[in-house]
Write a structure and sequence with these properties.
Elements: E1 16-21, H1 25-41, E2 49-54, H2 60-69, E3 75-83, H3 89-107, E4 112-119, H4 122-127, H5 136-151
Parallel strand pairs: 1-2, 1-3, 3-4
Helix pairs in contact: 1-5, 2-3
Bound molecules: 5-nitro-6-ribityl-amino-2,4(1H,3H)-pyrimidinedione.
5-nitro-6-ribityl-amino-2,4(1H,3H)-pyrimidinedione (INI) binds at residues 21, 23-24, 55-59, 80-83, 87, 89-90, 93.
Length: 154
Amino acid sequence: MPKSFQGDLNGEGHTIGIVVSRFNEFITGRLLDGAMECLMQHGVKDEDIEVAHVPGAFEIPSVARRMAAKNKYDAILCLGAVIRGGTPHFEYVSGEASRGVGTVALEASIPVLFGVLTTDNLEQATERAGAKSGNKGWETALAAIEMINLYKQI
Ligand code: INI
């Protein structure tokens, strides 16, 4: 039998940093609520969570990198919402946010999670922020707990 590794979903004792963007706050506020709820339900203490607010998704990676460098958190959650609408800006912002968070995740010694919605319209974003298709903030928080516990084993 090969040795296998899997992180469990016990968040007790974890310290979490969250970067959340204000652009499309109607959506990102719900992502933050979902993430907070998930963390608390899995044993993370309110006082062990710190939240940095940034203007838009473009600003998320640089702040996530600063938080990761503090050696204070067990994971960083990146939450945002980039909505295509009619603007070509979408491609630049969503591309930089995902590329940037990906780079930070590879450089950091802790898990850095991507909870940035990239959708064609507000309806899709609303569905993924607490309505029909779950809450991306919640999912990101759950993935963070699993990844923290996995990193501890490897
Ligand atoms: N920022 C977002 O988080 N979501 C968007 O949908 C968005 N659009 O569409 O423009 C957006 N733009 C702002 C961007 O993230 C930066 O804050 C801004 O360009 C300043 O650097």
